[in-house]
Amino acid sequence: MSRVRLNIFIEPDHARRLDELAAMKGLSKSSIIAAALASFLSPDAADRRDAAFAKRLDRLSNQFDKLERDQTILIETLALYVRYFLTVSAPVPEAQQEAARAQGRLRFQQFIEQLGRNLMRGRSLVKEVHEEVFPDAGQFFAMDDPAAPGSGVPDEERLA
């Protein structure tokens, strides 16, 4: 079978990566390019690319659904807390309002500082409290485990 010689121009980065791959695999650059071209031109190449995109989009969709669920939980938690706080808080008498504002500013500053410390440490207060309450529960926040509850994997797939 005869072969056709082509002179092509490629980006310097692609040329470097091709050289590295050829050296690492012990193959000629021509054979690597021929295999890549055959894969690109094959009739099912588009289907494979579409399947890869669909798989990635499914993962992104699952991650988005989890973020949306978490945001809904956060908003509901905040709303319930605000309603509870406003229900149980007694009004401050007029004579004590300035002192209450000063105390509020101080408490808010302390809150912001604590929030900053937690964020800098990379620890979650919710996770810490959960570990204190349920020390033997294992990983509640198993983000790296795709089969963990809340990981975006549907229950029927996780439980199968």
UniProtKB/TrEMBL annotation:
UniProt record, GO biological process: regulation of DNA-templated transcription
Name this polypeptide is given: CopG family transcriptional regulator
Organism per entry: Amnimonas aquatica
Domain of life per record: Bacteria
